[in-house]
Amino acid sequence: MAESAAPAGMWTPGQARGLLAIGAHRYLLALLVRKELRVRYQASVLGLAWSYVKPGVQFLVFYFVMGSFLGLSRAISPFAVYLFSGMIAINLATEILGNATRSIVYNAPLVNKIFLPRQLFPVSSVFVALVHFAPQVVILVLGALASGWLPDLVGLAAFVVGVVIVLALSLGLGLLFAAVNVAYRDIENVVDLVLMVAVWFSPVLYAWTFVRDALVHHPWLVQLYLANPLTAAVELFHRAFWWGAATETDRVSGVVDHLWAHAGLALALSALALVVGDRVFRRLSRTFAQEL
């Protein structure tokens, strides 16, 4: 006898539906996000204030090393806004990817005991990262305003597109690596190595023209560098917060040429990463309980 189709709005129990199932489990997602935040800051004196302290210390180190000692603050002005706008984009990406990669293994007791969409665990990493991202954006806006920045609609659009690229790319790769990490725990160490050097492969600490000039005889390497979705995302953040405070001379050297074309490519690659990551995750999630 053929199996009857489920009524509209319902699905077979225990059947993985990928990211499509997240909307129907918003309450569980909220619980997971609160759990992650509570566990992370348990017995912590500063608590959520660490989301200010960590990027603040990172910013000061980079600013004095790259800006003062190596003189980039004279080449890119205002360098503080340029640096911090790129930093928060990369920090958002690295936090999502790192936490999402470990999310299934760290939540093994829940995965083994009850059925719920496994995608909830990597997705909860996105919302935890956004909780940390929000105060950093507030600090960036205040610093940019103090530097003479004037917001504009194009800049607002650049910020939104940049955030979408970072979220889609990081979640897509996070889903992929989280699924593979269940069987091969070396993956999280590989991801740690990638995250360690990620800041150097995007124009966060320097202008992209440095790469263009250094690789003048290898234009294909420059195009490969520009094809990195995080490069486009960082430059979109620069367009959103730094452009309005920079001089005309700095604007020419500080933002990638044909930025919106590169942003379109980055969006396409990030969407592809999200689709592939979700499909791989759905396929491998069938054996998570046995592997854990």
Which percent bin holds the helix content? over 70%
Oligomer classification? single chain
Termini gap: 36 Å
Any idea what the shape is?
A: globular
Mean pLDDT: 85
Using only C-alpha atoms, the radius of gyration works out to 21 Å
- Which structural class do you get from the secondary structure elements? mainly alpha
Count of individual helical segments? 14
Secondary-structure element order, as H and E?
HHHHHHHHHHHHHH
**Sheet of most strands:** none
- Show unreliable segments: none
The count of DSSP E runs of length 2 or more, i.e. the number of strands, is 0
Q: What is the total domain count? A: 1
Percentage of residues in strands: under 5%
Short key terms for the protein model shown above:
ABC-type transporter activity; mainly alpha; ABC2_TM; 14 helices; about 290 residues; membrane; cell inner membrane; Transport permease protein
